[in-house]
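Handoff note, outgoing to incoming analyst
You'll be picking up this chain. Sequence as last confirmed:
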Amino acid sequence: RYRQGYAKRYTAWLQSASRCMSSFITGPSNFPVDRARKYSKWEHNRSMALHEFRKRALEAIKRTLHPEWRPIMAGDDNAQERLKAKIQKAEHEQEQMKKINQVIRKSSKKGPEVLKKALMELGYQEQDVINLLKPDVFGVVGFPKYKLTNNNANLRRMRQRLEVISRDQAKEATETQGSAARLEECPAENRVRLFFPGKPSEEVRTLLKSKGFRWSPTIGAWQAYRNHWSMEAAKQVA
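Most recent structure output, in case you need it:
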C-alpha cells in the first residue's frame, strides 16, 4: 500500500513539475505570469502532499511492525502487562544507578584501575565504564541526583496509573437510555459511546467532534476516550 500510494503521488507531482516553466527558458516575451504561478502552486502542493504521505505512512508502518512502541492506552487488553514491564525496567534502572553511584563513592579513592574493575564486575563493558566515569558539564561522575529523582517520580506515576487501570478494567460496562441517544460507559475499554436511532444533526455532530468523539462504523456509535469532558458532553447530548 505504501509503494502504491507513493507511486501515485510521485507521478502526480512529476506531472505538475513538467508544467512549470521559467522565463529564462521560454523567453520573457509574452510570458504567462499568472498561469506559471498557478502551475508552480500546484507543483508545490503535490510535493508537500507527497512528503506528508511518506512521513505518515512510514510512522504507521513502524507502529504496525513494533506494537510495543505504541503508547500504553488504558483500554488496551495488554495495558497492565506492558505497564508492569515498564515499571520493572524502571525499577531495575533505579537500582543500577544507585549501585553504580555507591561503587564510585567507595572505590574512587582507591585509584582509577580499582574503580574501573569494580564497575566492570557489575557487568559493564570497558567503553561503558569510560562513559560512566566521564564528568558531565557540572563535573559530576556517575549518575546525577536529578536522574534518580526523575526516574523515581516516573515510577510513582506509573504505579498510580497501573492502580487506576486495574480498577477500571475490573468495572462492568453501564448503559443509560436518554431521550436522544443511548449512552454506554465502558471503563474496561476506556471508552464512552453514544448510539443514536438515526444520524444526529450537524450541530450535535460538531459538538461531539469538539469533545473528542469520532464516528465508528464498526460498532455504529460515536465514541471517545473516557474522561470528565467526554462524559459531560455525552450526558448532555443523550
